[in-house]
Amino acid sequence: MSQPKRPGFPAWIASSAAPKPAAGARTPVAAGTAQRPAMAPVGWGLDSVAVRMRMVQRLAASGIQSQAVLSAMGGVERHLFVDSALVNQAYEDTSLPIGLQQTISKPSVVARMIELLEGAECARAPGGLGRVLEIGTGCGYQAAVLGRVAREVYSIERLRGLHEKARNNLRPLRLRNVHLLFGDGMQGYAQGAPYAGIIAAAGGDAVPQAWLDQLAVGGRLVAPMVRNAGQQVLLVIDKTLHGFTESVLEAVHFVPLKSGIA
Ligand code: SAH
């Protein structure tokens, strides 16, 4: 399927949040091996811009205010991250299966969580959101969106099959500031710490100590967590000079956070 080069979504042009290559970042591997939706409707490449803009309008109408987040959501082609049979649903506000019993998160949840991350105290410094750790790469969609908002992204996945799928999906995008790791994200990734933001795409029962340790002072953690009566809620934890502050937000539905690799 041909993907004509088109200008980005208008909000993107003025954005100061374009990814900056990290010093010493790995050179991206040559493009061309990504799995593209083989059965995408004819003209989808062109149509997807309009469909994506409508998705962004819906996100804005639902309360997402960050221009950086809206332009990143407008800039990443979600249909390239889902199986060909699901391409027509790629811009609906729904989670979709990505294999190995995992799902790509809903666009509204991705946007909401990244906007929360941008609220980190240290994201107010010049340069905006610095280094971010994502737990649960899945198909790599959220990592790609994060790559347009944060200076550097480390994304870790415990299932080798999905880690490889994400690699294939991201390779043609050449996001030099997005680093994919295979491992148990419950340990975090100490080599990249401290993080301005940590974002989890899988929900556990307790916040792993490693995440709290690896957060920068002024940094923010956004994660689904099981709380009272087995209800999963969105948790925001800020690390300050004087300790941690925690906010419990709306109910959410994420796949479980599991330990170990497979
Ligand atoms: N952000 C992803 C959503 C993936 S779903 C996307 O855009 O597609 C959540 C992912 O978290 C699953 O792939 C699951 O395997 C992974 N996961 C669960 N526990 C994990 C852990 N301890 N470390 C790393 N990844 C984990």
Number of strands: 9
Beta-strand content bin = 15-25%
Radius of gyration: 17 Å
Question: Major sheet: order of its strands?
Answer: 5-4-3-6-7-8-9
Kindly name the structural category.
alpha/beta
Determine the fraction of residues in helical runs and give it as a percent range: 25-40%
String of helices and strands: HHHEEHEHEHEEHEEE
**Which regions have little confidence, pLDDT < 50, spanning 5+ residues?**
1-42
Based on the coordinates given, report the CATH architecture of the domain at 11-16 and 29-35 and 95-251: 3-Layer(aba) Sandwich
List the total number of helices.
7
N- to C-terminal distance = 33 Å
* Small-molecule components bound: S-adenosyl-L-homocysteine
CATH fold node name of the domain at 11-16 and 29-35 and 95-251: Rossmann fold
CATH superfamily of the domain at 11-16 and 29-35 and 95-251: Vaccinia Virus protein VP39
Mean pLDDT over the residues: 87
CATH class of the domain at 11-16 and 29-35 and 95-251: Alpha Beta
Most strands sheet: 7 strands, mixed
Q: Give the overall silhouette.
A: globular
What features would you describe in this structure?
By secondary structure, this protein is α/β, with parallel strands linked by helices. It has a domain at 11-16 and 29-35 and 95-251: Rossmann fold (3-Layer(aba) Sandwich), CATH 3.40.50. It is built from seven helices and nine strands, in the order αααββαβαβαββαβββ. The two termini are 33 Å apart. The model is unreliable at 1-42 (pLDDT under 50). S-adenosyl-L-homocysteine binds at residues 98, 102-105, 135-136, 138-139, 141-142, 156-159, 162, 184-186, 201-202, 255, 257-259.
